[in-house]
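Lecture notes, unit on protein representations.

Consider one protein chain, 267 amino acids long.
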Amino acid sequence: MTNSHSAQARVGFTAVQDGKVLRITMTNPRRKNALDYDTMVALGETVLTASENRAVRVIVLTGAGGDFCTGADLAASPAEAARGITADQVMDAANRLVKAIVSAPIPVIARVLGAAAGVGVGIALAADLVYAAEDAYLLLAFINIGLMPDGGAAAMIAAAAGRPLAAELALLGERLPAPAAKAAGLFTAVLPADELDAKVEAAAAKLANGPRRAIELTKRALNQATLGALDAALAAEKTGQAELLGSADFAEGATAMLTKRKPVFAD
């Protein structure tokens, strides 16, 4: 295969095919790469399309600027609601994206700088290899705005690190720094920022030139052994989150976050 190089811009991200590697970069750094509905839909479609393209052998997923992804973009919610986009549709888009990453027959590498928060945690941990800079952190901030974790994040954290840590992150909504995430088995490796790209590129090159079918079957077996409960978790999250997105607590939490004040939840 030739070292072809092509690029395609999408809503809120770019997808660049460089030889056998598809590099997807979320491009909303002003909002720490938070994702609106259209971007989540297009990202999922891009991963699914890449999965069917025999010329693509590995996906590298990252964020522009100093962060990976801070989840759904709450600032876009009013405009989305005005377009008739429902909470169920938003949840379906997030779940399709996470499932597309997990079920892709080719490996996905997450390159994580700064914040991986909200559904950004699920997107990062859905990848097969997660390489993070020392300044990276995971944050399930949902509880802080009256929501519950989604994107399969709690299930994937529990699968890798156990229920106690998953409960701590989900119920307290506090940051987990990269070294602690690595120690818990959530990150593949943590490196100084100036060494991160070399590690990602070395892994991508090896996978891109490896035995495609053996890699596919290995990934499938690993996922079956560790993520068998993911579909049920995504379904439960959709039901619960759809309820919470219509609650007074979420309205208060979202307003408080956007106006940078402490929320006051109902008794």
